[in-house]
Amino acid sequence: MSKLGKRLIEAAGEALAIARGDVDASTYGVHIPAAIDTRAIRKTLKLTQQQFATRYQIPVATLRDWEQGRCEPDQPARAYLTVIARDPAGPSTGSIRK
């Protein structure tokens, strides 16, 4: 099993424990950066805007707007970009079963 797969299973177990009330949810936190350099992430992966947008299911126009400073990614998008930066192969491997 991949590292990402193990982390997802662990996170699901923690979420279940919180839902059941077995652990105190206030002890868990998620750090989402206030700002994120989308262009730097894409350049590190050596992808064009079109390739990055296609691989990670982000509209290319949105990606261009982020990179050119016309707008900034919202909180869920920053969280997603953080995941991409940490584990770029994870979302595109197709290893998560539906």
Summarize the structure.
The chain is an all-alpha fold. Helix content is 53%, strand content 0%.
Explain what the structure shows.
With 98 residues, the chain is an all-alpha fold. 53% of the residues lie in helices and 0% in strands. It has 2 domains: 1-30; 32-90, 434 Repressor (Amino-terminal Domain), CATH 1.10.260.40. It has helices spanning 3-20, 38-44, 49-55, 60-67, 75-86. The longest helix has 18 residues, at 3-20. The chain is elongated, with a radius of gyration of 16 Å.
SSE blueprint:
Layout: H1 3-20, H2 38-44, H3 49-55, H4 60-67, H5 75-86
* Rounded Rg: 16 Å
Can you tell me the CATH class of the largest domain?
Mainly Alpha
- What percent strand? under 5%
Q: What helical percentage do the residues reach? A: 40-55%
Strand count = 0
Overall average residue pLDDT: 85
Tally of helical runs: 5
Unreliable runs: 91-98
Q: What brief labels describe this structure?
A:
434 Repressor (Amino-terminal Domain), 2 domains, 0% strand, 5 helices, mainly alpha, 98 residues
